[in-house]
Amino acid sequence: MLVVVTPVESSEKPGRRDRKKLETRAALEHAALRLVAERGLAGVTVEDIAEAVDVSSRTFFNYFPSKEDAIIGTPTSEVELSKRLTAAPAGLSALQALGLALREEAELIQTQRDKWLLRLKVFESNPSLLSRLVAGGAEAERGLAAAVAERAGGADDGFAHLVTAVSLAAFRVAMVRWYAADGGPSLAGLVDQTFSRLAAGLPDPAPLPS
Amino acid sequence: MLVVVTPVESSEKPGRRDRKKLETRAALEHAALRLVAERGLAGVTVEDIAEAVDVSSRTFFNYFPSKEDAIIGTPTSEVELSKRLTAAPAGLSALQALGLALREEAELIQTQRDKWLLRLKVFESNPSLLSRLVAGGAEAERGLAAAVAERAGGADDGFAHLVTAVSLAAFRVAMVRWYAADGGPSLAGLVDQTFSRLAAGLPDPAPLPS
DNA sequence: GCAAGAAATTTCAGGCTCTGCAATCTTTTA
DNA sequence: TAAAAGATTGCAGAGCCTGAAATTTCTTGC
């Protein structure tokens, strides 16, 4: 049976077998991204991707449940984000804690600048994928919201979901903006700016003084 | 050729032909929703839905590009939302204007309470659909953001996208909350409360005084 | 009322996605 | 090195979705 490789406790090196699996997965991700960037989502079949990596298409589906998932890759899980949340200083508000966790994420993404710019380029021409950016999709959002609620100590009237959904949306916007600027500015900086605006209540930006 | 029926200027009644088309579309929407609520997304095929309405499955695809789209129905277009935006009083901030437009939306949804509660129930067990709730998906979000930017009078450093994305996310959360409360509270009220929180900068809610 | 003409539906063929299952090949481990 | 565990593969099949051509249904002008 093929099972997702659990990173274990970062110690214990994986062994040849698991290393190969990681390699194959990375190769599939890479090929999917490259091909789709070239030819568009509809112009690439799963068979194309599998062939580029020299495995059967059946094997592709052993690694990813769908073509889209290969393009999205193996994003930071909501579990990881939740951990960061609970690790954040207790004094911070939920919004601040989320901002911090996502700032870390930004720094991580920045270290893989080219891959992410390419991915965002693909997302641009396939907006349906965008919603799965970071802790992809509503399920992860729920999990993260639960962590926020717990951090806040229970009783929730929907605030946890709200602040979580809003934060993730804001993060997405920051990423798109980063992409639009061709990865020039610091993503973490953009995230910070975005969260400042959130914390300020999203007032209209002051028009530049003539 | 089958073309989406343009509502025209509300005058000029549609004529039998177009009325039938509307009927078929509504019937497909309804059947899709009902069946999927009963058996789950995977438990219903397009053929099932078409059969329930007594048309061919090819005809189904003349009305909806995918099974999911039938479930989502025919939501308020981002064009309509954009209109509301430009119609909003000039003095309002972007966030306030969006809040107003979405409040209207809430009232509209409230008038179709049962249908929407059923739809949200389906969304709950199929979170992948959730992202398309209201002005579904990233494309509509872009259009709406453009309207926001224009309203604000041009120069945009990403604020328009941010406030738009955040507002839509907030609206989604309000809807889910409304569903969770079984449609009891006023949706418009929940939307108002949500936008108040946004405008206040999402401060942690004060713990109840013991 | 009736004959074009327009429009919607249907049938058909076909490609692609994704899944379960059984066979095969490879790696690990004893 | 043999047995066990695990990964890959081929195969069959269901389901989604599309284009094109044929058919049926509606509309319109006479």
Oligomer: homodimer
Strand fraction of chain A equals: under 5%
Largest sheet, strands/sense/barrel of chain A: none
The low-pLDDT segments of chain A are 7-12
Termini separation of chain A? 67 Å
Total domain count of chain A = 2
Mind explaining what this structure looks like?
Two copies of one chain form a homodimer. The first copy, chain A, is 65% helix and 0% strand. Chain A has helices at 15-39, 46-53, 57-63, 67-72, 78-87, 94-110, 113-125, 137-152, 159-180, 187-199. Chain A contains ten helices and no strands. Chain A is mostly helical. Chain A is globular and about 55 Å long. Residues 7-12 of chain A have low confidence and may be disordered. In chain A, helix 2 packs across helix 3 (57-63). Chain A folds into two domains: 15-72, Homeodomain-like (Arc Repressor Mutant, subunit A, Orthogonal Bundle), CATH 1.10.10.60; 78-199, Tetracycline Repressor, domain 2. The structure holds a DNA duplex (30 and 30 nucleotides).
